[in-house]
Amino acid sequence: MNYSWDWSFFFKPSITGEGLYGVLLAEGVLWTLVLSLLSWGLALGLGTLTGMARGSANKALRWSAAVYVHCFRNTPLLVQLFLWYFVVPELLPPTWGDALKQMNPMLNQFLSVVMCLTLYTTAGVAEQVRAGLQSVSAEQAMAARAMGFGRWGVYRFVLLPQAFRVVLPSLTSDFMNVFKNSAAALTIGLMELTGQSRQISEFSGQPFESFIAATLIYMGITYAVVLLMRHLEMKTAVPELREAGALR
Amino acid sequence: MPALPYLWQGLQTTLLLVAVALVLGFSLGCVLAVVRIYGPRPLARLAAGYVNLFRAIPLILTIFWMFFLMPFVLRAITGNPYLTVGAMYSAIIALVLAESAYFCEVVRAGINSVRGEQMAAGKALGMSTLQCLRLIVMPQALRNMSPALVSQTIGLLKDTSLVYVISLNDFLGAAGQIGQRNGQLVEFYLLTAAVYLVLCSAGVVLVNYLQKRNRQAI
Questions:
Q1: In a domain, A9, yes or no
Q2: pLDDT tens figures, B77-115
Q3: Is residue A111 domain-resident?
Q4: Which of A87, A180, A211 sits opposite B190 (nearest CB)?
Q5: What is the ipTM of this complex?
Q6: d(Cα A215, Cα A233) in Å, to the nearest integer?
Q7: Interface test with chain B among A33, A75, A77, by most B beta carbons within 10 Å
């Protein structure tokens, strides 16, 4: 295979004059981390609320949450991203649409990706939270109300702590998916890790090294997520409620 | 509307990708699952490493790997310096490899859901592991995992839209191109979203039906 391996190219300046290749890759990693963590944080909050709404007694709330989750889980992420980036500025009132189109393009792309990723992940988290809340027996809620907890207090102090401990494993895979889904940002021009590694591979002529670097970084991120969630699971485990497989 | 034949072509590409990736990915996933559960330790760990690798990296990165780097490797292996791999083949291979990792997990959960005594009983009757799997465990496992299988196929349908990044004209790509040509991006992207929503909703209906049928069978 007449391919010249050159791992030192990460320290060479880019032919586009933007800086060292390694620095460009690090910028991509930074974008990935910022996008994913911001979306995940927002999605956890919104998803919890939506999951609660899915099980609420109010029919309108239940139905609208169900429709939202169904629509946002059953369209591809890329389609949703294009809708947010290309379609929404056209559908908004003219002044808002113009403001969106005239703002700094990177900010525009960033906002679109964050909106899209947040809402997509919220739908997934909402499903997990709903499953978790359903697994907590109904007597807990009734007992909590009998003891005088308010409507929100029941969720905050009794139901959600138990529900989250149950669905922590599934939330781990959702967390990993957020990092992988952030790669879709490259299609609208935001150079996160995957997009940046492709750019570097084209400018430097060293595709293998750049893609291997990107692969290793994603594997590192995933491993860090797995370690973090495992640590969380161990710290929050209630001894009586541990599953058979959790004892290592 | 003159756009319909082009859209139909794009839809055909999407469905072709889904069908091929489903069949090949599921078969490879089954093989991986069996190796992981019943295979010798080194092979099982290799399979586990493969599955964890493809579940850790984005599908877009896998597609880039297959599109940009696989031709290099193939040229070295076959010794033919003019070998080219088109976008379609690299997309199919990327999808098959990535989805086989997810299908492996589904099949593994399905096999583990069948009680261990079934395998023991089959072996007591003198069957080999593979015969047990084929005649006793897999039929039951397939029934148990059918909702998850359809769910994963819906995920596969959504993932095929990612071949946009190598400019392969699936439904999303076709709709986008026509939208840009006509200047009607809004309508065409909304149409794309609606079509995917309808297809995936049909899948969700199937999943619910299968889940209900499995519950009633117990």
A1: no
A2: 887 777 788 889 999 999 999 999 999 999 999 988 888
A3: yes
A4: A87
A5: 0.89
A6: 27
A7: A75
